[in-house]
Amino acid sequence: MQNRTILHLDMNAFFAAVEQRTNPHLKGKPVLVCGNPKGRTVIISPSYEARAFGVKTGMNLWEAKKLCKNSILVECNPANYVEVANHLQKLFIQFTPLVEIFSIDECFLDVSGCQRLFGSGRDIALKIKKRVREELDITCSVGIGPNKLLAKLGSHLKKPDGLVIIEPEKIQQVLENLPIQELCGIGPRITEKLNKLGVYTCGQLARYPVEILQRMYGIVGLHLHDIAWGVDDSPVMPYDYVEPAKSVGHSFTLPKDTFDREVAKKYLLQLSEQVARRLRKGNYKGKTVHLIIRIPDFTTLGQQVTIRKFLDEGVEIYHTAVKILDKFNVEAIGVRLLGVSVSNLICGSSQLSLMPEENRRQCLIYAMDKINDKYGEFSVTWGRLVSGFKQNNIISPAWRPHKNIRFGYN
Amino acid sequence: MKFVAQRSKILEGLLNILNVLPTRSTLPILSNILLETTEAKEGKGAGSQLKIAATDLDMSMMSYLPVAVSKKGSITIPGKTFVDIIREAQEGEIAFTATDNRLEIKLENGSYKIGGIPAAEFPKLPEVNTARQNKVSSQDLVRMVRKTVFAISGDETRPALNGALWKAEDESMLMVATDGHRLAKVSMKNKKFHGLSGSVIVPPKALNLLVKLIGDEDKDIGVIFGDNHLIFNLEDSVISSRLIEGPYPNYEAVIPKDNDKKLIVEKELLASTTRRVSILSNNFTHQIKFAVKKDKMELSAANTDLGGEARETIPCDYDGEEMELGFNANYVLDILKQMDGDKVTFSLNTPVSAGMIFPREKKENEEYFCLIMPLRLAD
């Protein structure tokens, strides 16, 4: 782990930039990429022109419109973003195989071993920036550092189109007065807790007794101490590395709040099918089913159930999820969002059953998967899901190019 | 209650009873062993004897030990503690006295006392009604159990599969077990089952205990098919087990009729190769691949976690088109272990349908085969 050179690349306003590239009329204009503008949705990606007016990711449409009256709403096109992301990955791996896709618009490159071929970290960053601009007509911010933590911090420090190098000898200087929440890994909760202890900057955190941090947070406490010193040994994983899943889940915001259990159950079936499908794609089965219900006042309720059998069939996951749903008084509390996830996973079972009924079901699901692989998700599905089927056209943070999972269902 | 017993005799009985004693129980009385003096059963020598019993409510066991009783009575005492004391005692005669819910054990150099619970609180054990009892050869029974018990399911979501189906009729008897992935069926005919008739689903615990107690001993044992109980009468001990409620799934329907490809292979060679290759199989699926050709078959496995793979080729005799099948290696090994003779025959159809396995050597009046469902190989 000595003398590494890590690049962090962050595509600037990625979705909006791709939209502006696809439709030149949008160039230089405040563009707001959102979900379905007719339904309820939030701003997923505002262009830099819109950000100038104070529009931020996650804002409501009306909030954004109020800030930026001339903004242009564009419904997101996940297929486009996936295409550009795939192109980017192909470009990056021409420099090094150690390309860790962090999310659809962010990745780490470990270029420690390829500097004789392509020059210093700075040279490589400039080459990549140039090619990204030329080939894809978008810009990115690059951070260069001796580890992932500092590389990510670097790209964060100057946006858009930045290039920040954090030299090993300047680490203390950069971190001393940096607010702790700027570091990747310190969220609002930890920030609030540390602020109460009088710790606001990384310098203060670095000097804070590690024993106390450890007592407060356990292993995380040690990690906090490390990152405050700019220490991060985590490797950049190769682009084709697939981390074994710990759980597989989907959530869905209903087009409008419902107080009808049957309506909620229908969405639950859809979510269960989506989860089951992804379990089977990864050759997983799981025995813990977790249901999340967000009610109209944004309170999130959830419960999980562990059963004896390992599941990978939508209907079985659905029945387990319904058992949890039945514990809540849907008619009284209402439902805004539903989420289903399955954890406690095992990998690799494709044992066929002797029992004719179960065997028929296995064959049926196998055939359905084949058809849906070829013609797209939900080409064949349960009758109950055919009418009024809705999908949320959003790419999840867990998106990875090599997982070969179709857009819109992550 | 007062009696004197030889340490080795009582210890032997107690160790058998320990198989039934629940290790953990919500009912304190179930951790206790019942000691009760009774009159000797019919046909046995005169004098009194000691009945010791334990139960976990699903299964119970009673053993009768010849002891010198000087005062009748009964008590229940914590089983494990009692066995520990007897186990550590020196060989010789031990005197037992129960008074006021305490048992005193007099050893050579001193005495031990343990508190008990009155025998009246012990669950009522099923009684042996010898009039309803039928005699079955212990070795026939043990053979049937050994050949099927491994396939019993542990999946509690399908209770009927948590036991072996035992069917007896006229002069024939059969036992079937399946967990939905493999199935074992053994049937015997032209045997004297002395009129045993009926169909029951027996939990594996009772069957395993029976095999353990009988071992290689060849004798007739009494069997009673009750409404919800099954009783094995082994002369000096009685096992009774709760039966599992049916119906047992229609296993006949899953026995393939159109398996037209035959694969004959050396049993020991296949077993040892499977064991070796499966070391590098996936820890959960234990998937092993059989690539069968006319005169040879390749066994292979891969474990991506270890970055390992294994491959071996062995001779075989196969009359169908070349095929690749995935199996759980453990299932294959369980089955091979029960096959008699030097060779086994696989009767196959497709890589996604059940394969049948027969022993090449057939025992007279016995039919035995196993079914194994493959693992679907990745495309």
Biggest interface between chains: A-B, 18 and 26 residues
Beta-strand residue fraction of chain A:
15-25%
Low-confidence stretches of chain A: 402-410
Strand order of the largest sheet of chain A: 5-6-1-7-8
Number of helices of chain B: 6
Structure commentary:
- The complex is a heterodimer of chains A (410) and B (379).
- Chain A is of the alpha+beta class and 410 residues long.
- In chain A, 40% of the residues lie in helices and 21% in strands.
- Chain A folds into three domains: 1-166, Reverse transcriptase/Diguanylate cyclase domain (Alpha-Beta Plaits, 2-Layer Sandwich), CATH 3.30.70.270; 171-228, 5' to 3' exonuclease, C-terminal subdomain (DNA polymerase, domain 1), CATH 1.10.150.20; 247-385, 2-Layer Sandwich (Dna Ligase, domain 1).
- In chain A, the strands form three sheets. Chain A has a five-stranded mixed beta sheet. In chain A, strands 9-12-10-11 form a four-stranded antiparallel beta sheet. Chain A has a three-stranded mixed beta sheet with strand order 3-2-4.
- In chain A, strand 2 and strand 3 form a beta hairpin.
- In chain A, helix 4 (78-92) runs antiparallel to helix 6 (121-136) and helix 11 crosses helix 12.
- The radius of gyration of chain A is 23 Å and the shape is globular.
- In chain A, 35% of the residues are buried.
- The model of chain A is unreliable at 402-410 (pLDDT under 50).
- Chain B has three domains: 2-121, Roll (DNA Polymerase III, Chain A, domain 2), CATH 3.10.150; 130-251, DNA Polymerase III, Chain A, domain 2 (Roll); 255-372, DNA Polymerase III, Chain A, domain 2, CATH 3.10.150.10.
- Helix content of chain B is 17%, strand content 41%.
- Chain B starts with a strand and ends in a 7-residue tail after the last strand.
- Chains A and B meet through helix 16 of A and loops of B.
